[in-house]
Amino acid sequence: MPDETPQDDGREPVPGEGRSATGRRVPAPAPPADDTDEADRDGEPSGESRDGETGTSETGSGKDDTGDDDSVAPSGALIPEEIEQPVGERDPATGAPVTLPAAAATAEPVAPEPGAPDPAHDVEQRKREAGVDHLFPFGKPGQPLGRAHPFVFGFTAALGVITAWMLVKAATNAKSVLVMIVVAMFLAVGLNPAVERLRRFGLPRGAAVATVFLIVILFFAGFVASLVQPVSEQVTELRHNIPEYVQQLQNNKTLADWDKRYGLLERAEKTVNGDGFQKGLTDTATGIGKVAINGIFQTITILILTLYFLSSLPQIKTFFYQLAPRTRRARVALLGDEILDRIGGYVAGQFTIALIAGVCSYIFLSILGVKYALALALIVAVTDLVPLIGATIGAVVVSLVAFLTGTTTDLIVCAIFYVVYQQVENYLVYPRVMKRTVDVQPAVTIVAALVGAALLGVVGALLAIPTAAAISLLIREVAIPRQETL
After folding, report:
1. CB of 321 within 8 A of CB of 202?
2. Burial profile 381-420: b = 16 or more Cβ within 10 angstroms, e = fewer
3. Beta carbons of 275 and 150 less than 8 angstroms apart
4. What is the pLDDT of residues 426-477, one digit of tens each?
5. Would the CA dihedral through 211, 212, 217, 221 be positive or negative?
6. Cα–Cα–Cα angle for 128, 132, 134, rounded to 5 degrees
7. SS3 for 272?
């Protein structure tokens, strides 16, 4: 249908527009009209028609309903001047287009041809084969070495071995510190059930930790105080009785006979007056003093670390639980809580066994009439904290003191009592208590304590049973169910 819109011949042509052969203006090429164009939706013609002769589109005068001159092409077409031309890189500071330099051509290495000169003697041939250009004045670098290259593999393996050796060396040098940290964490985990029990009564965690730690300090202070009086009395008595002991040795007929035969007194006098004896005695006293000072320092350090670990145990647990993947964190946390509960039960069981040993020793020594029964009972209770061998150490100390302060009969009676008691504790009391608190079989308890003592001594014996409990829990809850699914 012909366009009946009046034409405005006096209007200046818009740049980019031209006239067709029939004299009508032709707009610049426009993109295809959108299917959702208003003219198409309303069912009205868009104002464009086709010139059958030239094949170009026709438009009206370009005026809107208000009679103003409209410079925007119909059907959503953009004016050519307003079409934003694509640009390349822009300056990040100003946003202005930046013209990048064209990529320079690089020379490629040339393979040596038959009969070509040796690059070791010919400089030009050397440059051609290496691909020398202004970007690579010494030739293009070759391909990097792959991971499977023998040099890379050997270097990585050697570096791993050196790193492992350095870690082992560092752990060996810091063995005493690591042992103190492990013992302090073990005690903190073992005392945590007592803290949680006090919290159920309404105490805040800080007050509960302070209460439990104060009880521990009072126990050790009472133990040390109970030993001060017996030791001081024995030292004073020994100092007063030295002349009497010397006189008894001189009047002893057997010793006098041995002295006549072998010259014991003369040899003893020469040994005592020699320089080596005095130096050895001084070194021994110095070593004993160093050991005592080191023991006191380690004990104080362990107590301080235990206090810190006990007060921040929830945060420490949360930190280690967060190291597990999110999908497995809940199960890891449940297993970790169970392991910590078993360690706490083990510590509670050890204190129970030590309390039983101390009470039985005090009753026995009081009936026998041995001096310092309370101090000796406390020694038995403390040494009995060490699994399996603790009762033997306490028995030796008590029997020796009973012999020195009493008679040979007291020694024999004490030895018999502690031999019987140790068998009862090792095979009846200890496995039953550990079975109830740690849930470990009696045979596993004994084997774990023996292996731990052989590996790390006293510390290994202390940590062996809770370690065995943790391993048995992981085997039962993780390894066995996984084997059932294979």
Report:
1. no
2. bbbbbbbbbbbbbbbeebbebbbeebeeebbebbbebbee
3. no
4. 778 877 777 777 777 777 777 887 888 888 777 787 788 888 888 888 888 8
5. positive
6. 145
7. helix
Report pLDDT digits (tens) over 243-255.
776 677 667 777 7
Alpha carbon distance 190, 249 (integer Å)? 53
Which amino acid is located at 354 in the chain? Answer: A
Ranges of residues in the chain whose predicted pLDDT is under 50: 1-26, 28, 33-84
Complete DSSP assignment for 36-76: T-HHHHHT---S-EE-TTT--EE----B-TTSPBP-SPSTT
What phi and psi, each to the nearest 5 degrees, are found at residue 161? -65, -45
Please tell me whether residue 178 adopts helix, strand or coil conformation. helix
Q: Which two tokens stand for residue 112?
A: 């040596």
* C-alpha 147, offset from chain centre: 30
Cα–Cα dist 374/358, whole Å: 9
CA distances from 225 to 33, 260, 310, 326, 375 (A): 102, 47, 26, 52, 9
Report the pLDDT value the prediction gives residue 453, as an integer from 0 to 100.
80
Contact 335, 343 (CB under 8 A): no
What is the rounded distance in angstroms from the CA atom of residue 301 to the CA atom of residue 214?
16
pLDDT of residue 68: 45
Q: List, in order, residues 6 or more apart from 134 with CB less than 8 Å away.
A: 104
Give this prediction's pTM: 0.58
Are 309 and 188 in contact by the 8 Å Cβ rule? The answer is yes
Please report the DSSP string for 347-412 in residue order.
Answer: HHHHHHHHHHHHHHHHHHHHHHT-SSHHHHHHHHHHHTTSTTTHHHHHHHHHHHHHHHHS-HHHHH
Residue type, 471: I
